[in-house]
Amino acid sequence: MGNTSNSLKQLALQKFKKNFWGVFSFWFIVLVGFVSIFAYVLAPDNSQYANQMHLSIHSKPPGFKVTMLTIPSQVKNKQSFFDKIFFGIENTDTEVPISEYVIKDSLLNYTEYATDGLKGVEKSVALANFPSTEIKDFIKEKRFVFGTDKYGRDLLSRVLVGARISFFIGFVAVFISLLIGVLMGSMAGYFGGKVDAVIMWIINVTWSIPTLLLVIAITLALGKGFWQVFIAVGLTMWVEVARVVRGQIISAKEMQYVTAARALGYNDFRIITKHILPNIMAPVIVISAANFAAAILIESGLSFLGIGAQPPMASWGAMIKDHYNYIILGKPYLAMIPGLCIMSLVMAFMLIGNALRDAMDVKG
């Protein structure tokens, strides 16, 4: 039996490897996962939430370059290395976009950057504020690959950091949906009778409520925030898993191997977990891939409505909300870039779900 199981797994893996879009989507998801974990290492703006604002350079096009003056702070940063890598740097330094500067006596005189041909404010800072004798270490040209948003923040950094929410909400929501859905579906399908009737009533009531409306209600009950959205989305997606598991178990519990397990005296828990569930996981895996995509879309919708991840936390849905009116103002990329990110990640999960379905189809 073990050899047969291994051979079926190998056959499914071989079929999956032959599916170009499935393999491509898998590696794309791995790449997004890597970016999500190490976003602050990869982002040009590694401050917490990539939230360095420069209103004088707001809404600049991709490839925009400006000279940036960094004025060191006297407050020392006591963050750990681990905290800086995974949660960003608590930046206390002041960054100022400038158009020109002159060093005279013991002062650095500079002119702040201004748009539309206007002359910026002239200011000065004492050279004693800079710990290094080489002042040029604090004056560097900064390039914004994706441009800046309406607050003057680096759009590329916000996109990279925002990938974390969209990616991890899929994992948390699918984990919660599997935990509840497999438990409820297994009980309903295996025991039947009144247990099945009660669980199906709960499933049908939950199913009848519009998903977005239910998520909004749960989010408002738990409060606005990062983890609240994760839990709310997960609590609305378990019904699909439960229905699939219930249907599969109703068919599987009449099979000969289940009858043999009962004859050997195994208890119900062992029969469900050790014998039935391993044989019905293929459709559950496929629906989990679809739930990943659905969770990303729901989170984006909640952030767009303003009840998802809260500012200054970066979220693709919130970025679209902040900039959707720029579509008619001649700067559509501010909303289109995060929109394309959502579309590509959702598409990747849908393609990998289709590839898994084809690979696990024993009739294929």
Automatic annotation (TrEMBL):
Source domain of life: Bacteria
The keyword Zinc appears for this protein: no
Membrane association type: Multi-pass membrane protein
Keyword list, A-Z: Cell membrane, Membrane, Transmembrane, Transmembrane helix, Transport
ABC transmembrane type-1 domain residues: 163-353
Gene3D superfamilies recorded: MetI-like
Subcellular location: Cell membrane
Keyword match rRNA-binding: no
UniProt cross-references to SUPFAM superfamilies, sorted A to Z: MetI-like
Cellular component terms per the entry's GO annotation: plasma membrane
InterPro entries per the UniProt record, alphabetical: BP-dependent_transpt_permease (IPR050366), MetI-like (IPR000515), MetI-like_sf (IPR035906), OppC_N (IPR025966)
Biological processes per GO annotation: transmembrane transport
Regions that span the bilayer: 20-43, 165-191, 198-220, 276-298, 333-356
Pfam families: BPD_transp_1, OppC_N
Family (UniProt): Belongs to the binding-protein-dependent transport system permease family.
Protein name (database record): Oligopeptide transport system permease protein OppC
Protein's organism: Jejuia pallidilutea
